[in-house]
């Protein structure tokens, strides 16, 4: 078991190395650089050249990559070109809104999706099942930003409990926190919820057709008990997989949600950093997000291996 | 009434009493401001951006400053003298000038700051060409000596707007002008609270309790900078829609950069009022180095294709906010005139097509247009330019990019086949277009060609003559000569018109100093 | 074929897709107004007889832009689906069949999957410029690992089958085995996956446009129209409404079609996708 865990974690190192090189190369191939933006509208070409040199952007790329990598190995993610603040400090400032949104979204989606999915499977073919399925296709097809604007248009602003934008920390009270985060959670959660709902329905449906369920039914075990004790429990593995693998999916959604609701989180930080070519910030952020993804993936694999010794990747 | 009811009634009375008492209500006032965009740098010398200047105006002070009428007034300087013969300027600093860390401001600080500015700024460089040496006289006096008299010395110190000559502590001013500073100690009326800074989201300033304002009333950037709030918080709002709702909800007090299409919604709201801004001046630049626009005929052709009303309509949209201006200069300035402006004022696509043909341009060759899609006004104007060029049969290569890429692309001097460009556009604060000297975009120096590569010896001489001129009338005359020649050569750029979108301000705010390039936060009271 | 069409989801999905795709395909016939022609004095006009969907911030005809924008969106959806399936199929088959390259290829795929696709796409568009090509590449790249994994999984199962082993023993070349025995078995799954990829590509194109990192705004696309309509959506909701509605409908149609195909072609896929 320990061996397997270590092997999986070591296997993640080349993956992260590939990501680091790929992202670095990609960004430095991009036209445009921070010097022109710092210099501002009225700057002359000489002004820009002077800043370019001062930022060490004129050094050869392999040297810049080496310096960055060396810093990483020593736990130093570098400093932002624009603010001279450490990348990790910027991440820390923006972490809370994003984590809050991710947690509320996961709770909301799971709490709504699993009962609905299980119900649809249990009453497969019924009107209720149809409604759930239609909702699930619809939820998949509406772009998150369109949903966001619909929510703002109909449910936010004056005369409603929901503000149009912004984020309030949970430390400033549960009520204001929930009022601010409710609509973003709904916007981000809808497509995530639909994903979980579909998998729940498919998995439960499959298990409900298994022989032992039929036997249980024949023995007169109440339907409610069959659903909760047998079907849902056995469908748990694929559902957990989707919930954890939905991480990558959440990240993309977070970028747009934070932009629509003006939430100062990591998603917005990344988009801003890309548009300003703040290389150390983008590189650090993408690497951190990817590492989290790889870790979650590895943890999921290890959990499987733990529960099912046959699995050895 | 039971005891709980009495308790509530008592509480309500207490609340009512505290609300009525002014000393309690004004315990801590915070002013919330949403700038038009995030700031790229906190260094107003390394950067020529406008938002960095708004930041710098809060935390730094200047030797001179322009007042509400545009006249240069002493600010940190108590008074100055000019020696017989006009060669030596001596400046006496005001009493009580202190850095935010409590250390007094010294002449050394001022000299080092001027040197950093003079090494970077175009007009600063020109002044420094005349300066022979600086001398520290004593703890509050310093002077500099010129090689020959330079009439615009005080004007340059007080009116330079590309880079304002802010005064930094000497240790900060020793930084290379290309390296953004990281020590934000100033001597201005506000102190930057670095610990609360969340880049891209929030900047916090608190009142400088030790700041000694001048005795004159505040006017423009001059006079007494009396701060009447405790804190100013900048709330960066990347989305205009969110910014508007934040203003309506009372979450911000001053909003700069209102999209004109949203004004009707704000006008209908009783909690919002408007304050005048200086406004903007837009101009189109063509690359003079390569065909077609190395040819004066092609440049004239483009002038006939420019219809300022159409540009203003797509950029601004609300006719009450814009006006056409067929002059090289801000039409509200003394220099403005309509000499040689027929092609700019007129719109004649047929004539434009003919002139393009006469210039020998091959219509199947692409004209490269740079479009920064993250700058809404420029983006709109570039789409219109493409549409208009195509309407007369030209081939256009409309290249969309972000601003970061554009700043790099526009510096490419080669032909379009090597990544160069033909047409681009920008805009700046209209007051910086009041003369042919201060704005770097008037640059036509053949030895140091500017972005557009425009070059004309006679125009360059006129610029210098303007700076050296002794009287206002003489300057207006030279400005007229400059426009006459520039418009006859259709160089270095084409004016596209002017507009001003007001600041949207909460009705809780009083004492906003309107009508200068950038907002300032002293003198403002908040209920 | 008849059996497939009997599935109500397939039929419904097809109807929606056809209704949405036909005007886009014949855009120049359906709308005679140039979608890029500006009329600065006619800006922000609500829907009327002369402008069915109103005019936008530049006085351009929204109806014409939505119809032409549909072309761009469909083009993006189809190209991304086709390219990612073809490339993914080749890499997946090779990886599943040839041990040597499997380890390396799968690490690279893991790496690509670990980078959030939208951020990767934004970064790629900033490299390649706001052209149709770079947007297609940026959306395709993160989709490839999904195809590779699916194909590899199927290949791994099939190569153990008796008839494949028999072919190997008979000395059939690797390419021939892949072509004749293995790839045909992946077709059903790939058709279904292609429909999902196409639908999500249309959405991603719109998201990129929304974030200002999409196709050159000179070319009408639903993403671009929606992005430009953002600022004015309270005063001119029609500019946002029409392209959004079209976007939702076509994605809905393709998704319904995909679900139907999945259920008829291979019900076991329900859990894999």
Key attributes of the depicted protein:
heterotrimer; B: 527 residues; alpha+beta; seven-stranded mixed beta sheet; four-stranded antiparallel beta sheet; globular; disordered N terminus; C: 273 residues; mainly alpha; MetI-like fold; 12 helices
Polypeptide structure, described:
The complex is a heterotrimer of chains A (313), B (527) and C (273). With 313 residues, chain A is an all-alpha fold. Chain A has 13 helices and no strands. Chain B has 527 residues and is α+β, with helices and mostly antiparallel strands. In chain B, helix 14 links the parallel strand 17 and strand 18. The N terminus of chain B is likely disordered. Chain C is mainly alpha-helical and 273 residues long. Chain C has a single domain, classed as MetI-like (MetI-like fold), CATH 1.10.3720. The longest helix of chain C is centred in the first third of the chain and has 36 residues. Chain C is elongated and about 75 Å long. The mean pLDDT of chain C is 85. At the B-C interface, helix 11, helix 14 and strand 18 of B face loops of C.
Helix content of chain C: over 70%
- What is the tally of beta strands of chain A? 0
CATH superfamily of the largest domain in chain A: MetI-like
**CATH architectural group of the largest domain in chain A:** Orthogonal Bundle
Quick gist of this model?
Chain A is mainly α.
Fold topology:
The complex is a heterotrimer of chains A (313), B (527) and C (273).
Chain A: H1 2-29, H2 34-39, H3 45-54, H4 61-73, H5 87-122, H6 127-141, H7 144-155, H8 174-208, H9 211-218, H10 223-234, H11 236-260, H12 266-276, H13 279-307
Helix pairs in contact in A: 1-13, 5-6, 5-8, 5-11, 5-13, 6-8, 7-8, 7-11, 8-10, 8-11, 11-12, 11-13, 12-13
Chain B: H1 3-20, H2 22-25, E1 30-34, H3 50-59, E2 61-62, E3 64-66, E4 72-74, E5 77-82, E6 88-93, H4 107-120, H5 122-130, E7 131-138, E8 141-146, H6 153-159, E9 166-167, H7 170-173, E10 190-192, E11 202-207, E12 231-235, H8 240-248, E13 254-255, H9 263-267, E14 272-275, E15 280-286, H10 296-305, H11 308-315, E16 322-323, H12 342-345, H13 349-358, E17 366-372, H14 376-391, E18 395-401, H15 403-409, E19 423-429, H16 457-468, H17 472-489, E20 493-499, E21 503-506, E22 509-510, E23 525-526
Chain C: H1 2-6, H2 8-25, H3 27-30, H4 62-97, H5 99-114, H6 117-128, H7 132-158, H8 162-169, H9 174-182, H10 187-210, H11 222-229, H12 237-265
Helix pairs in contact in C: 2-4, 2-12, 4-5, 4-7, 4-10, 4-11, 4-12, 5-7, 6-7, 7-10, 10-11, 10-12, 11-12
């Amino acid at each position: 078991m320990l061996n397997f865990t270590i092997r999986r974690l070591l296997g993640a190192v080349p993956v992260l190395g590939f990501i680091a090189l790929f992202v670095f190369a990609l960004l430095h191939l991009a036209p445009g650089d921070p010097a022109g933006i710092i210099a501002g509208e009225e700057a002359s070409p000489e002004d820009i050249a002077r800043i370019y040199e001062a930022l060490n952007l004129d050094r050869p790329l392999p040297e810049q990559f080496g310096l960055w990598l060396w810093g990483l190995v020593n736990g130093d993610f570098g400093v932002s070109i624009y603010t001279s603040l450490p990348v990790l400090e910027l991440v820390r400032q923006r972490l809370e809104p994003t984590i809050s949104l991710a947690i509320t979204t996961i709770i909301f989606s799971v709490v709504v999706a699993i009962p609905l999915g299980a119900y649809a499977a249990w009453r497969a073919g019924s009107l209720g099942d149809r409604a759930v399925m239609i909702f699930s296709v619809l939820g998949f097809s509406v772009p998150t930003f369109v949903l966001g604007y619909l929510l703002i248009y109909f449910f936010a602003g004056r005369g409603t409990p929901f503000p149009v934008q912004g984020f309030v920390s949970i430390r400033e009270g549960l009520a204001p926190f929930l009022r601010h985060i409710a609509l973003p959670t709904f916007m981000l959660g809808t497509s995530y919820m639909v994903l979980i709902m579909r998998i729940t329905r498919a998995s439960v449906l499959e298990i409900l057709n298994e022989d032992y369920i039929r036997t249980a039914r024949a023995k007169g075990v109440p339907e409610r008990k069959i659903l909760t004790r047998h079907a849902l429990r056995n469908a748990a593995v694929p559902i957990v997989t989707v919930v954890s693998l939905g991480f990558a999916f959440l990240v993309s959604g977070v970028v747009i949600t934070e932009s629509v609701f003006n939430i100062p989180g990591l998603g917005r930080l990344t988009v801003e950093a890309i548009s300003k070519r703040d290389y150390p910030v983008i590189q650090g952020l993408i690497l951190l997000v990817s590492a989290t993804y790889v870790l979650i993936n590895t943890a999921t694999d290890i959990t499987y291996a733990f529960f099912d010794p046959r699995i050895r990747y | 009434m039971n005891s709980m009811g009495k308790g509530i009634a008592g509480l309500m009375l207490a609340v009512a009493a505290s609300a009525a008492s002014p000393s309690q209500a004004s315990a801590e006032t915070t002013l919330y401001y949403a700038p038009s965009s995030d700031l790229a740098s906190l260094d107003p010398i390394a950067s020529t951006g406008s938002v960095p200047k708004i930041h710098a105006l809060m935390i730094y002070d200047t030797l001179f400053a322009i007042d509400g009428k545009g006249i240069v007034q002493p600010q940190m300087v108590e008074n100055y003298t000019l020696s017989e013969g006009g060669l030596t300027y001596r400046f006496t600093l005001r009493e009580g000038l202190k850095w935010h860390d409590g250390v007094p401001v010294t002449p050394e600080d001022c000299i080092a700051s001027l040197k950093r500015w003079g090494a970077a700024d175009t007009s600063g460089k020109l002044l420094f060409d005349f300066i022979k040496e600086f001398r520290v006289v004593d703890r509050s006096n310093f002077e500099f000596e010129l090689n020959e008299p330079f009439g615009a010395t005080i004007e340059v110190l007080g009116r330079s707007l590309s880079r304002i000559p802010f005064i930094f502590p000497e240790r900060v001013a020793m930084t290379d002008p290309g390296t953004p500073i990281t020590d934000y100690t100033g001597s201005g009326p506000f102190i930057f609270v670095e610990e609360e800074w969340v880049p891209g989201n929030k900047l916090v300033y608190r009142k400088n309790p030790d700041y000694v304002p001048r005795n004159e009333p505040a006017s423009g950037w001059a006079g007494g900078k009396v701060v009447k709030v405790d804190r100013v918080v900048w709330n960066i709002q990347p989305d205009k829609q969110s910014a508007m709702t934040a203003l309506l909800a009372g979450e911000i007090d001053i909003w700069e950069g209102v999209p004109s299409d949203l004004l009707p919604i704000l006008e209908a709201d009783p909690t919002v009022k408007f304050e005048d801004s200086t406004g903007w001046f837009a101009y189109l630049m063509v690359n003079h180095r390569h065909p077609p626009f190395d040819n004066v005929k092609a440049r004239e052709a483009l002038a006939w294709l420019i219809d300022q009303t159409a540009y203003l309509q797509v950029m601004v949209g609300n006719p009450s906010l814009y006006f056409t201006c067929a002059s090289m200069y801000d039409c509200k300035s003394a220099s403005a005139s309509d000499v040689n402006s027929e092609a700019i004022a007129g719109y004649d696509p047929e004539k434009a097509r003919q002139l393009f043909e006469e210039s020998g341009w091959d219509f199947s060759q692409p004209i490269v247009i740079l479009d920064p899609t993250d700058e809404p006004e420029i983006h709109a104007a570039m789409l219109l330019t493409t549409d208009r060029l195509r309407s007369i049969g030209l081939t256009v290569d409309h290249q969309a990019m972000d601003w970061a890429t554009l700043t790099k692309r526009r510096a490419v001097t080669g032909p379009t086949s090597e990544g160069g460009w033909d047409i681009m556009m920008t805009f700046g604060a209209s007051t910086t277009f009041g003369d042919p000297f201060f704005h770097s975009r008037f640059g036509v120096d053949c030895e140091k060609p500017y972005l557009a590569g425009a070059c004309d010896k006679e125009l360059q001489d006129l610029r210098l003559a303007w700076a050296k001129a002794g009287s206002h009338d003489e300057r207006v005359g030279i400005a007229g000569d400059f426009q006459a020649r520039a418009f006859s050569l259709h160089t270095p750029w084409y004016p596209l018109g002017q507009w001003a979108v007001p600041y949207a301000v909460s009705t809780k705010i009083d004492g906003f100093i309107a009508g200068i390039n950038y907002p300032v936060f002293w003198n403002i009271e908040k209920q | 074929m008849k059996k497939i069409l009997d599935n109500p989801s397939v039929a419904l999905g097809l109807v929606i897709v056809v209704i949405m795709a036909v005007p886009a395909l014949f855009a120049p016939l359906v709308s005679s107004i140039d979608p890029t022609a500006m009329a600065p004095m006619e800006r922000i006009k609500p829907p009327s007889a002369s402008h069915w969907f109103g005019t936008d911030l530049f006085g351009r005809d929204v109806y014409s832009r939505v119809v032409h924008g549909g072309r761009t969106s469909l083009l993006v959806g189809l190209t991304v689906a086709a390219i990612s399936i073809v490339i993914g199929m080749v890499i997946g088959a090779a990886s599943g069949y040839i041990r040597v390259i499997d380890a390396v290829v799968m690490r690279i795929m893991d790496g690509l999957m670990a980078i959030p696709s939208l951020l990767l796409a934004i970064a790629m568009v900033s490299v390649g410029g706001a052209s149709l090509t770079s947007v297609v590449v940026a959306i395709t790249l993160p989709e490839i690992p999904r195809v590779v994994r699916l194909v590899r999984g199927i290949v791994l199962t099939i190569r153990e089958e008796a008839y494949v082993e028999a072919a190997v023993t008979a000395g059939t070349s690797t390419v021939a085995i892949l072509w004749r025995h293995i790839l045909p078995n992946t077709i059903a799954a790939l058709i279904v996956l292609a429909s999902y990829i196409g639908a999500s590509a249309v959405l991603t194109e719109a998201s990129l446009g929304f974030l200002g990192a999409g196709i050159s705004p000179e070319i009408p696309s639903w993403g671009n129209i929606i992005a430009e309509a953002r600022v004015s959506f309270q005063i001119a909701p029609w500019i946002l409404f029409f392209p959004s509605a079209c976007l939702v409908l076509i994605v809905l149609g393709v998704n319904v079609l995909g679900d139907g195909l999945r259920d008829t072609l291979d019900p076991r896929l329900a859990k894999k996708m």
